[in-house]
Amino acid sequence: MSIAEDTAAQGATVPASVAMLRVLESWGVEHIYGYPGGSFNSTMAALDAEKDRIKFIQVRHEQVGALAASADAKLTGRVQVCFGSAGPGATNLLTGLYDAREDHAPVVALIGQVPTTNMNYDYFQEFAENPMFEDVAVYDRTVMTPESLPYVVDKAVREAYKHKGVAVVVIPNNFGYVQIPDTPYSSSSPTDRKPAPLPAATDEEVRTVVDMIKQAKRPIIHVGRGIQTGGEKLVELSRRLSIPLVLTGLAKGLVPDDYEANLGYANRAASKAADEAFATADLVIALGSNFPFANLIYRTHEFKFVQIDADAGRFGSHHFLDYGVWSDATTFVDKALALLDNGEVEETPATPFFRACVASNKNWREYLNKMMNRPSNPLEFEAVYKEINRVAEEDAIFSIDVGDNIINSFRYLNLTPKNKWTISALFASMGYGLPGALAAKLSFPDRQVFHIAGDGAYSMVMQDLITQKKYQLPVINVITSNASLNFIKSEQDDLSIPQHSGIFLEDQDFAMIARGMGVEAVTVTSSDELPAAFDKAVEVTKAGRPFLIDAKITDKRGLPVEELEFHVEDGKFVETINPNYNANGTLHHPETVEEFFASYDGEELLPMTYYFEQEGVEA
């Protein structure tokens, strides 16, 4: 008699794979993304047995499943699960798992393996899987016995939460069928739902930072996602200390877009005033931010640097510290406001630098508003965002793919704390938008969901539009199609190469392809066609069906404010254009900053130096 048979004779038993799924259910997992393969059949049998308690979402490519799990974890804060069978099913998961690792999303990946009776025989699709996942995973184990399967998966969930990362469990296929004792295997408890305690700044630390702000001539706060729900409080602090705010991309929506001293974003996905302020700042305070482009933006000139972060391990990772404060960002803001309220710290009247930044920001916003509201035929991208903003509900969720749509979303998409949105932030994987929309609609079925992608990114994963159809997920899919990898095209504009290389795509009729999948769709080519298209999208999705808009836009470059540079002459700032701009000669070559702005229809834009002169800002 086998061990399993002996155990079964003594009491109630359950297949090991079912016990494993019940562990996941106990942790609140509601659905699992994957694509079946022979080495995963024991788990597939368990998914059928547990289908009333946990839903299998059949994607058409494992990469989509892993990206969806990553997006789901970012949107919900809860562990999410994907799987792949042995061999290519496993390797196809890696892109999505790296996205989860880079953005600190708790994901469990279940990996099929051939039966133990065939391991080490060079069996079909057998290979050593753990080494492949060693770099991406915080926990990487192969199950050694059927009885340990639910235990190892429970441990994987706990490690994914602990480290905010990827946990990998390799499961020999024969183990899942084996009957094991039907006992509770989960360690999940209400304790796991408590928020982790956060560090708090001392009054002395806050006073030190405030003193540095008051001593600086041109201070800014570089705000990250760590501000969380403290955006309104940060606005109050900004006003009372006369210090402008520059945001990292992931902080979009957390600080009100309409605040006059919210200058927007630095670097390439940028606002003009934000890049100009950053390039001239003499004090930068990184508040709950982890800026992946710091090695570019933080190295342009010397400034004093303060870092306020709940993760002390990040101190100095992007710039040497003049002062560091181990503290939750919002707690720091609360303490600073308390010092102002009780009179220990005096408010700062609007400084020349603050006034200049506000005026430059107003000028920039007027330009964006003009671009978004002017008619275009052929269609330009700004008008698409005007329509998205018009039909979006106040708590809509946006899944935005990699490319120009990141820049355009930062500039033109209206977001508030009521919204959720997700991108592949640090790994920047093309093809993220559609999986993210799947995740959003599955986890938030009552909220409106938008998927925004360019044709290059969408064409990598468009087979999974059928997944929206299969599960009747009413997503509004907006494909900005210009037959170009335009984000890369813009980079090549500034390289000394004779012409663009490898970035032009063969155009496709995405609406026709969508209709072939049974998804209603429309193509638009001018701005006057957009309102009807978006009205139809709302009508169809409210009826419970997905809809696709193929927006055929031009391949123009958005105004590249990252090309602006500053130097000091005779005690004054001088604003110029990066000499590498238009290095390949495909664009108009401007001689002045004003001519540069005009070449992007920005005749009304003025250099920051104009506002510096108006307000008397000193270098």
Automatic annotation (TrEMBL):
Keyword Lyase assigned to the entry: answer is no
Can you give the residue ranges of the Thiamine pyrophosphate enzyme central domain? 207-334
Q: Where is the Thiamine pyrophosphate enzyme N-terminal TPP-binding domain?
A: 19-127
Task: Write one Gene Ontology MF term.
Answer: pyruvate oxidase activity
Asked if Metal-binding is a keyword of the record, the answer is: no
Q: Where is the Thiamine pyrophosphate enzyme TPP-binding domain?
A: 401-550
Keywords of this entry = Pyruvate, Thiamine pyrophosphate
InterPro entries, A to Z: DHS-like_NAD/FAD-binding_dom, POXB-like, Pyruvate_oxidase, THDP-binding, Thiamin_PyroP_enz_cen_dom, Thiamin_PyroP_enz_TPP-bd_dom, TPP-bd_CS, TPP_enzyme_TPP-bd
Q: Which domain of life is it from?
A: Bacteria
- Region annotation (Disordered) maps to 182-201
Family listed = Belongs to the TPP enzyme family.
Extract the PANTHER family matched here.
Answer: PYRUVATE DEHYDROGENASE [UBIQUINONE]
State the name under which the record lists this protein: Pyruvate oxidase
